[in-house]
Design a protein that fits this description.
By secondary structure, the chain is α+β, with helices and mostly antiparallel strands. It is built from seven helices and 20 strands. The protein has an eight-stranded mixed β-sheet, with helices on both faces. A five-stranded antiparallel β-sheet has the order 1-2-3-7-6, with no helix packed on it. A four-stranded antiparallel β-sheet has the order 5-4-9-10, with no helix packed on it. The longest helix is centred in the middle third of the chain and has 18 residues, at 235-252.
Length: 366
């Protein structure tokens, strides 16, 4: 477990170097604010940044290739700083910020997303398989914020709830997936960076999933500080989840409120939470998804209520052999286990978007 945690916290969001000339076919990133040209991306996956800061003596963008320390920008006679990444980035979403004379500054050209325990700038490198999370002319579900009281924390807490397009239009009750974000993120991550609502809408429209509700709340992961990873046990969040959030959701939404119709999954540290809680609360959830958050072993499940689904995934640049070996051992032991490895990605959102796409098609089909 400790080795897995250390890997997760040290994981980076960068691609490998590429050879050849940079093509000058740059286009504004799809995440830019209205009317803003920069940042830009080209067909090869390079990113280019620009900001006007005539009084600055140094500007750097944290987005770069693994270990390179980011992208240095160069100042022209008009006080405009411009720079291009040294190589193409992994496809998909990336957080970044600018460092201007030592000060951390968000890029004014793009939108902000909560990551690294702060609102960060975001850029999207177009992926060849982006169709599965694209905004399409299909029936859309609803993502709403709900507020629930936490007596343990003595405060009001927020969650975002995705309901399928048919919810409220019939008398059906629905299964529920509790879906957790990673370290440094919050309850907005999965539906904003992860496009989980769009993925579900497209899957439902294609008839590939059994519709279900998704609940996303803050997993209290950011209470863990660097240097104290070994102390993380997810017990505080477990109490909120099991004793407060689940009863709230079951009393306010048309849920199938039993173990067989309740699942827990998470990315990165949210996957670690899923593993920890699964061992202590096997009577609450029937299915688990660990996305870049470690692996299960058959021995861990001995003497516990047998899960109906175990799903593990990671990027091909993470630890695919460990994931595949783990799932094979689970299958051999008689568990309904599945693995997925995202080709060409690391510890990043395209890995998790793809992972969710595959997980969703396996859930609640028993």
């Amino acid at each position: 477990m400790n080795k897995t945690l250390l890997f997760i916290f040290s994981a980076i969001f960068f691609a490998t170097n590429a050879c050849g000339q940079v093509k000058e076919d740059f286009q504004p990133s799809e995440l830019n604010q209205p009317g803003q040209l920069y940042p830009m991306v080209n067909s090869q996956g390079y990113a280019r940044f620009r900001i006007k800061a005539p009084g600055a003596s140094s500007v750097k963008v944290t987005l770069g290739l693994g270990g390179s320390g980011g992208t240095e920008l160069t100042k022209d006679a008009e006080g405009v700083w411009t720079g291009t990444t040294a190589g193409p980035m992994d496809k998909g979403f990336h957080y970044y910020h600018m460092i201007i004379d030592g000060a951390v500054v968000n890029d004014p050209g793009t939108n902000n997303f909560y990551g690294s325990c702060r609102w960060e700038s975001g850029i999207e490198i177009p992926a060849p398989d982006a169709d599965f999370f694209a905004l399409k002319n299909v029936p859309h579900g609803n993502v709403q914020q709900v507020i629930f009281h936490s007596s343990g924390a003595q405060m009001e807490k927020a969650a975002f709830v995705y309901t399928p397009p048919t919810y409220g239009k019939d008398n059906k009750r629905y299964p529920v997936l509790y879906l957790q974000h990673g370290w440094g993120e919050n309850e907005t991550a999965w539906w904003r960076q992860g496009h989980v609502g769009l993925i579900m809408d497209n899957l439902i429209a294609a008839g590939k999933v059994k519709p279900f509700i998704i609940v996303m709340t803050y997993g209290m992961t950011n209470d863990v500080k660097w240097g104290h990873i070994k102390e993380f046990d997810a017990k505080a969040f477990e109490k909120v989840l099991v004793s407060e959030l689940i009863p709230f959701i079951d009393s306010h939404f048309r849920t199938l409120a039993d173990r067989s119709h309740r699942a827990l999954a998470g990315l990165s540290m949210g996957g670690v939470e899923t593993r920890l809680i699964s061992m202590r609360q096997p009577q609450v959830f029937s299915a688990y998804g660990v996305l870049s958050g470690g692996t299960f072993t058959p021995d861990e499940w001995k003497g516990k209520e047998k899960p109906q689904l175990l799903f593990e995934s990671c990027g091909s640049k993470e630890y695919p052999k460990e994931v595949e070996a783990s799932v094979q051992s689970l299958k051999t032991a008689g568990y309904n286990a599945h693995s997925f490895v995202s080709d060409g990605t690391a510890h990043e959102f395209l890995t998790w978007r793809r992972s969710f796409y595959h997980l969703a098609q396996l859930l609640f089909r028993w």
